[in-house]
C-alpha cells in the first residue's frame, strides 16, 4: 500500500519553476498529483513542465504569474481551474531577496519585498481559499517562510519582516479556515542552494555551514517527501504551525 498516494489531487505552487518550489513539484507529481506552476519566467516554466511530465505520476502545467500583481493571480487561478478543474493544495512559495540594512532602508526596497513575500501569499490564498470554501472539501495551504523570521540576521530587515508576516498569515489562516477543514502551515527554511542564496557572498555560505549543527546545506531531494507529507491526509491534524527546516540552525 502506498501511504502517500496523491492521485486525484491538484496542487498550485507559486514560484514552482526552480529551487525549492520545483523540488516540491517533483515530489507531488511523483506521488500522482497534478501540479499547476505559477511563475514569471516562461522559459523556466517550460523547462520545469517538460521535466515534471517525464515522471510517472501526475501531470504538470505552468501559467505565467507575478504574485505582486493581483490580476495575474486571478488569471492564473482561472487558468488552473480551466485545466485541472479544482485545487486541493496550495504552496505559496514564490519569493524574492533584496534584504537591506535598516540605516539604508528605502520605502521602495521595503514595498518591493513585501509585495512579493507577504502580499503575494495573502492574495494567492485569497483566490485559492475562495475556491476551496465553495467546493466544501477542505484543502491544504503551505507557505515557504524562512528562519530569518525568527532569528536576527544582518542586512535583512525587510526580508525578515516579510517572512514574519507569512508566519502571522499562517496562524491567522489556520484559525479562520479550520471550520472549512482547510489547514495552513509554514515551513521556515534554513540554508538551501537556490537562486536567492546564489546571490549571497560566498563567505556567508561558509560561515552558515559552520553554524548549522548538521554542518551542511539542505538537500532538495529531501524536500520532495516533505511536500508530499504536508499535501497528504497524514498532516490533516497539523495546522497553524511554523516549522523550521534548517538542520538545527535556529537552535544553534
TrEMBL record:
Keyword annotations: Oxidoreductase
Family matches, as SMART domains: PKS_KR (SM00822)
Presence of keyword Chaperone: no
One of the Pfam families matching this protein, by short name: adh_short_C2
One GO biological process term: fatty acid biosynthetic process
Taxonomy, superkingdom: Bacteria
Gene Ontology molecular function: any one: quinone binding
Residues of the Ketoreductase domain: 9-185
Similarity remark: Belongs to the short-chain dehydrogenases/reductases (SDR) family.
Protein name (record): SDR family NAD(P)-dependent oxidoreductase
Species for this entry: Altererythrobacter rubellus
Amino acid at each position: 500500500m502506498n501511504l502517500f498516494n496523491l492521485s486525484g489531487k491538484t496542487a498550485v505552487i507559486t514560484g514552482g519553476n526552480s529551487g525549492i518550489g520545483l523540488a516540491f513539484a517533483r515530489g507531488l507529481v511523483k506521488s500522482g498529483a497534478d501540479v499547476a506552476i505559477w511563475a514569471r519566467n516562461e522559459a523556466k516554466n517550460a523547462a520545469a513542465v517538460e521535466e515534471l511530465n517525464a515522471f510517472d505520476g501526475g501531470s504538470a502545467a505552468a501559467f505565467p504569474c507575478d504574485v505582486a500583481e493581483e490580476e495575474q493571480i486571478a488569471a492564473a487561478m482561472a487558468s488552473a481551474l480551466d485545466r485541472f478543474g479544482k485545487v486541493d493544495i496550495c504552496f505559496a512559495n514564490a519569493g524574492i531577496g533584496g534584504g537591506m540594512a535598516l540605516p539604508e532602508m528605502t520605502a521602495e526596497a521595503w514595498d518591493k519585498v513585501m509585495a512579493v513575500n507577504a502580499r503575494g501569499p495573502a492574495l494567492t490564498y485569497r483566490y485559492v481559499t475562495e475556491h476551496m470554501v465553495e467546493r466544501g472539501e477542505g484543502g491544504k495551504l503551505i507557505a515557504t517562510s524562512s528562519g530569518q523570521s525568527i532569528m536576527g540576521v544582518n542586512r535583512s530587515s525587510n526580508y525578515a519582516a516579510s517572512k514574519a508576516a507569512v508566519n502571522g498569515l499562517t496562524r491567522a489562516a489556520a484559525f479562520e479556515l479550520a471550520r472549512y477543514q482547510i489547514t495552513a502551515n509554514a515551513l521556515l527554511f534554513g540554508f538551501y542552494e537556490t537562486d536567492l542564496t546564489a546571490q549571497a557572498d560566498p563567505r556567508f555560505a561558509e560561515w552558515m555551514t559552520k553554524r548549522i549543527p548538521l554542518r551542511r546545506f539542505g538537500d532538495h531531494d529531501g524536500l520532495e517527501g516533505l511536500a508530499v507529507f504536508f499535501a497528504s491526509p497524514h498532516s490533516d491534524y497539523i495546522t497553524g504551525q511554523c516549522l523550521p527546516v534548517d538542520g538545527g540552525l535556529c537552535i544553534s
